[in-house]
Write a structure and sequence with these properties.
about 240 residues, alpha+beta, five-stranded antiparallel beta sheet, 5 helices, rod-shaped
Length: about 240
């Protein structure tokens, strides 16, 4: 009974350590991915000419402006250069707090296309916080009309007036995000399962050996203490 209890406690310890390592890997992977996404978004934001963005009106009039076409072209090239980037866009905020799109990186015939001036009705509080605080952030997963996404937000601030010009958003599909984290967690999970299997196998083998020894000892004692003679024949009748 004591040996059985020790095995259970040992297995429990292995499981606890395995779960702890898995959670640590998941947290570390998520943090590294967020840092990497923010770095890419920051690079994209710093390449945008604030003068072009300041010239936009946030309406369909921008479609015929060279500034709009220039920024949209830049965003399109940067999005296609990153295979994991699903959306790349610039957002603005009106004085009444309404958030809208200046431009995105998709063609007008795309079902996910956001025309200039499109109001972002389902904007989350985490997005609004980036507008009010003017601080970079990686938020999500957040679900809206475009899907469930993890988003890096980088405010574009005019260095002279210190006014917020726009906020750049870079989206990664949450399914890719989860797959990457699960792939990294597979190593500690597999290691934990292997250790559990190994302990159970060794315990089973140990029990089998102990049972065989016990059986042999019983037979030995029986023959040594038997009060009558015992004769053993093989299959050929030899004694």
């Amino acid at each position: 009974m004591r040996k059985y209890s020790r095995v259970v406690l040992f297995l429990l310890l292995i499981v606890i350590i395995g779960i702890s390592c898995t959670l640590l890997v998941a947290y570390s992977t998520d943090k590294n991915m967020r840092d990497d996404l923010l770095l890419h978004a920051r690079i994209a934001a710093y390449s945008i000419d604030l003068g072009h963005v300041g010239a936009m009106t946030g309406s369909e009039i921008d479609l015929h402006m060279a500034s709009y076409q220039r920024v949209k072209s830049q965003l399109t090239l940067m999005r296609t250069a990153d295979s994991h980037c699903r959306f790349l866009y610039l957002m603005g905020q009106r004085t009444d707090g309404v958030v809208f799109f200046y431009t995105d990186s998709l063609s007008a015939d795309s079902e996910d296309y956001a025309p200039p001036g499109l109001v972002y009705d389902e904007v989350s509080d985490s997005y609004l916080h980036s507008f009010s605080s003017r601080k970079e952030a990686v938020v999500g997963p957040i679900t809206d009309r475009w899907g469930t996404l993890v988003t890096a937000l980088v405010p574009l601030v005019d260095p002279q007036t210190e006014e917020l010009v726009a906020v750049l958003g870079m989206d990664i599909d949450s399914s890719h995000w989860k797959k990457e984290i699960m792939a990294r967690c597979a190593v500690p999970l597999t290691g934990t399962l292997f250790c559990v299997f190994l302990v159970m196998l060794l315990d089973s083998k140990g029990k089998s050996i102990a049972a065989r020894r016990e059986s042999e000892e019983r037979h030995r004692l029986f023959f040594e203490n038997c009060p009558i003679g015992i004769i053993h024949y093989d299959i050929h009748g030899k004694i």
